[in-house]
Amino acid sequence: MRSFRVALTAAATAAASVGLALTGTGTAQAATPLPSHVFAPYFEAWTGDSPAALSAQSGAKHLTMAFLQTASAGSCTPYWNGDTSMPIAASTFGSDIKTIQANGGDVIPSFGGYTADTTGTEIADSCTDVSQIAAAYEKVVTTYDISRLDMDIEVDSLDKSAGIDRRNKAIKMVEDWAAANGRKLEISYTLPTTTSGLADNSKALLRNAVSNGTRVDVVNIMTFDYYDNQPHDMAKDTQTAAQGLYNTLASLYPSKTPAQLWNMVGIIEMPGVDDFGPAETFSLANAHTVYDWAVSKGINTLSFWALQRDNGSCPGGSAADNCSGIQQNTWDFSHIFEPFTGGSTTPSNDFSVALSPASGSVTAGQSTTATVKTAVTQGSAQTVNLSVSGAPAGVTASLSPTSVTAGGSSTLTLSTTSAALNGTYTVTVTGSNASGSHSATYALTVTGGSGNQCTAAPWDKTKVYTGGQTVSYKSHTWKAKWWTQGEEPGTTGEWGVWQDLGPC
């Protein structure tokens, strides 16, 4: 029996090696390479959410998909989340990934993660056959036609030297296969960090990659969860951690220029409150600071954990998978980081304006309110000046305050008098600053008024009117008896061109 099992293992290894060499044939029509600067937040693949839908809603065109791992220790077959119902196949996320790619984005499948690292299901720890590990990597590349794979090595796996060596050898095999078949394939490592850079075990992992001839294109550091019981300026800590990584890379790759070394750096933030607690809170202000710094340094990848956390549904809370724990609008962090993709300079600033609710009814003599919401859609938050127009006679519109910092809100108050006419009116709130202007409208319905809203078009002194046409003027409806232009209704007398049809 032992000999039979050995024979089966040898046959499987040979088959995997052949598969690695042959399945790439004819794959020169490969995925589009990622931009040299890319924003790719993590997507939690176990939630049941659609990555394509969240990509569209958030504006994040590129996603890091977490995670791929084996179902049990000792296996060589990876699944999404280690779930055997989610194989590496077009049936699992295939249509979503195609949609994202069709919209000009892409995904970065990530192997490993905390759970895999601590349960022996990270594939290079689980599987002792380098060829089968390489075949699994290749299958992800060809199944989803992607151009980057990520290796998320966080905890126990950092101290498993055999797994580290197998992983780097397998990556080297896949890199050689991709090069032979005309495919652009990048490899990134995601590693924990201190505020001053990588720990020794992470440095050892990268040294092993160098010794195996394995090309590492990007090293992403997780600039959160420091657990050092120290006060933190999370934006400053990001910069010092990245500088430490840069210094390590400079020693490992002495022939690279400073620009090339910075372009190997990736940053992963955790919006809001991280797992340690409120002492490690990454704020929206921190995000703006990190964005500007990332642009100035020319780093490769800007990311955060995770897209499903980019909302303020649990302000004052602790770390969670589905909210940030701070006060924010949905997608605030995404909007700050989005312009990083493909960019090399700080983007122009822009904002949006919305009204909540966008319509309402009021009885003449009373008032109603709506909230004017602004948000940063690009760049950093700037002052937005607000104005309102379109209020009809008998209605007074006011804003408090009349200027906000993008991301802030104001209150629109619509006060009516008993003289207000019944009808539905469009009131427009406009926000403006140096970047331009944006507007939102409110549909105000007045009831119980002293009359009805005129429905005919207002009289225009420059327009030609012919017999039978009607206009509204001074709250009355008028009908032209014959051709006329420039004659003001109500001034031509009983026998004149305009017939008064009464108040409206």
TrEMBL record:
<keyword id="KW-0326">Glycosidase</keyword>
<keyword id="KW-0378">Hydrolase</keyword>
<dbReference type="GO" id="GO:0005576">
    <property type="term" value="C:extracellular region"/>
</dbReference>
<dbReference type="GO" id="GO:0008061">
    <property type="term" value="F:chitin binding"/>
</dbReference>
<dbReference type="GO" id="GO:0030246">
    <property type="term" value="F:carbohydrate binding"/>
</dbReference>
<dbReference type="InterPro" id="IPR001223">
    <property type="entry name" value="Glyco_hydro18_cat"/>
</dbReference>
<dbReference type="InterPro" id="IPR006311">
    <property type="entry name" value="TAT_signal"/>
</dbReference>
<feature type="domain" description="GH18">
    <location>
        <begin position="37"/>
        <end position="327"/>
    </location>
</feature>
<dbReference type="GO" id="GO:0006032">
    <property type="term" value="P:chitin catabolic process"/>
</dbReference>
<protein>
    <recommendedName>
        <fullName>chitinase</fullName>
        <ecNumber>3.2.1.14</ecNumber>
    </recommendedName>
</protein>
<keyword id="KW-0147">Chitin-binding</keyword>
<dbReference type="GO" id="GO:0008843">
    <property type="term" value="F:endochitinase activity"/>
</dbReference>
<keyword id="KW-0119">Carbohydrate metabolism</keyword>
<dbReference type="GO" id="GO:0000272">
    <property type="term" value="P:polysaccharide catabolic process"/>
</dbReference>
<dbReference type="InterPro" id="IPR052750">
    <property type="entry name" value="GH18_Chitinase"/>
</dbReference>
<keyword id="KW-0624">Polysaccharide degradation</keyword>
<keyword id="KW-0732">Signal</keyword>
<feature type="signal peptide">
    <location>
        <begin position="1"/>
        <end position="30"/>
    </location>
</feature>
<dbReference type="InterPro" id="IPR003610">
    <property type="entry name" value="CBM5/12"/>
</dbReference>
<keyword id="KW-0146">Chitin degradation</keyword>
<dbReference type="InterPro" id="IPR036573">
    <property type="entry name" value="CBM_sf_5/12"/>
</dbReference>
<dbReference type="Pfam" id="PF02839">
    <property type="entry name" value="CBM_5_12"/>
</dbReference>
<dbReference type="InterPro" id="IPR017853">
    <property type="entry name" value="GH"/>
</dbReference>
<dbReference type="Pfam" id="PF00704">
    <property type="entry name" value="Glyco_hydro_18"/>
</dbReference>
